[in-house]
């Protein structure tokens, strides 16, 4: 049973804690047995049974649960660096999308890529995310938008999950936009989603969640009801891209349908906040998307004060958030969402675990949970999130193994 000692500050992030309390313990130790945490506490309380066990020295550093990036679009073909320039010259994200760029252009590049190419590219991102201390990643499809290419993306995720140390949680986002070839007959695509794609994804166990982008230029509330209804019927849990660029009632629908999470929420209404508070839905904040699109940040303080848990994730994708740097997103959540470091860390660990329905095994360093942790070269949580460096993570333990 290995024991990690000489931890200047340990953040345990227990699942039942209020979000503002990350369960910090100074001068701590952690022990694990196989892939499971067996003991955490002040080092001075380490039980005698552990004192003869192999000790690893954390170098008087911060130790946190392995980070969970609970919202990414990890697998995609191409990039969209030219759009970055167009936006800087004044074109909006929606204008670029309306002229055939945006998500549709990545759909073209993804359809044209082989599974091997897509897998190689996603793997490079996963390697870098793991080095930052990220041990679990939710990953959406949504750049295939037809039978063959949606399944292709999800098969890439299945393979990577088997081969890579990072655990993947796949989400079916076939309802990302209406594919260009269905623009004049969108009801046919909704039928394809509900009658063929969702049943196939569920039957092959290719996704745990179904997501939909509710927005002008994407899907209407009525279409979302049909798609999410079919997903529920086939045993998928629900997520919603809601109220990102305008208030479209997405948060209200997410609450009404008991979605596990409502994501983005830059334009959520007060009514939407109350609805999420009653339904227990997790709000997923995506500060990098607000940064890159010069959009408002979601009202994290109002959500937290209303009792809505707020996760923090990257939204990594080639358009609105071309970065997988979760610690950067966390520092932005502190600065631009007025979340404290403890609220933010819980948002990227225990609350993020709730957003992917893994709150009984991941996101917390407590006995019985999976031994996923990161050693951070900072003496405290406050110091880490305040003093931004490219990568403060020095070691990662994944399921009891050093990476
Ligand atoms: O979460 N809003 C919809 N989907 C992504 C953007 C995808 C893209 O621009 O390629 C998002 O921001
Ligand atoms: Fe997204």
Throw out a few tags for this protein:
binds fe (iii) ion, seven-stranded mixed β-sheet, 403 residues, binds N-(iminomethyl)-L-glutamic acid, alpha/beta, eight-stranded parallel β-sheet
Topology:
Blueprint: E1 3-11, E2 24-33, E3 36-42, H1 48-51, E4 55-65, E5 67-69, H2 81-88, H3 93-98, H4 103-111, H5 115-131, E6 134-140, H6 147-163, E7 167-175, H7 186-203, E8 209-212, H8 221-233, E9 237-242, H9 250-256, E10 261-264, H10 270-279, E11 282-285, H11 287-293, H12 300-305, E12 310-312, H13 326-337, H14 341-347, H15 350-355, E13 373-376, H16 381-386, E14 393-398, E15 401-402
The chain binds N-(iminomethyl)-L-glutamic acid and fe (iii) ion (FE).
Helical amount: 25-40%
Number of strands: 15
- Structural class of the helix and strand makeup? alpha/beta
Q: What does the average pLDDT come to?
A: 97
Name the hetero compounds present: N-(iminomethyl)-L-glutamic acid, fe (iii) ion
Uncertain residue ranges:
none
What amount of the residues lies in strands?
15-25%
Strand order of the largest sheet: 5-6-7-8-9-10-11-12
Form type: globular
- Give the N-terminus to C-terminus distance in angstroms: 17 Å
């Amino acid at each position: 049973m290995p024991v990690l000692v000489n931890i200047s500050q340990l953040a345990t992030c227990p699942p039942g804690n209020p979000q503002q309390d990350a369960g910090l313990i100074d001068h701590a130790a952690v022990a694990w047995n196989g892939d499971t945490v067996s003991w955490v506490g002040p080092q001075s309380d380490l039980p005698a049974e552990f004192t003869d066990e192999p000790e690893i020295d954390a170098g008087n550093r911060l130790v946190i649960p392995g980070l969970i990036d609970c919202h990414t679009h990890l697998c995609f073909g191409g990039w969209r660096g030219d759009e970055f320039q167009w936006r800087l010259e004044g074109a909006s994200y929606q204008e670029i999308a309306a002229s055939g760029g945006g998500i549709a252009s990545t759909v073209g590049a993804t359809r044209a890529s082989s599974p091997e190419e897509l897998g190689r590219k996603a793997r490079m991102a996963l390697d870098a995310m793991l080095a930052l201390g990220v041990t679990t990643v939710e990953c959406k499809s949504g750049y295939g938008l037809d039978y063959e290419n949606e399944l292709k993306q999800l098969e890439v995720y299945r393979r990577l999950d088997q081969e890579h140390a990072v655990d993947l949680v796949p989400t079916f986002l076939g309802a990302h936009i209406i594919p260009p070839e269905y623009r004049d007959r969108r009801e046919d695509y909704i039928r394809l989603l509900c009658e063929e794609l969702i049943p196939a994804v569920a039957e092959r166990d290719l996704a745990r969640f179904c997501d939909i982008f509710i927005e002008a230029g994407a899907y209407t509330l009525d279409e979302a009801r049909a798609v999410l209804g079919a997903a529920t019927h086939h045993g998928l849990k629900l997520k919603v891209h809601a109220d990102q660029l305008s208030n479209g009632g997405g948060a209200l629908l997410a609450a009404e349908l008991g979605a596990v999470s409502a994501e983005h929420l830059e334009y959520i209404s007060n009514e939407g906040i109350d609805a999420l508070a009653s339904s227990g839905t997790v709000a997923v904040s995506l500060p990098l998307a607000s940064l890159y699109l010069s959009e408002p940040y979601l009202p994290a303080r109002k959500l937290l004060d209303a009792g809505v848990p707020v996760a923090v994730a990257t939204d990594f994708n080639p358009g609105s958030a071309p970065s997988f740097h979760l610690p950067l997103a966390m520092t932005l959540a502190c600065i631009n969402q007025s979340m404290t470091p403890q609220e933010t860390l819980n948002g990227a660990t225990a609350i993020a675990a709730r957003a992917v329905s893994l709150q009984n095994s991941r996101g917390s360093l407590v006995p019985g949970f999976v031994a996923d942790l990161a050693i951070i070269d900072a003496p405290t949580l406050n110091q880490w999130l305040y003093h931004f460096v490219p990568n403060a993570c020095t070691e990662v333990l994944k399921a009891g193994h050093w990476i």
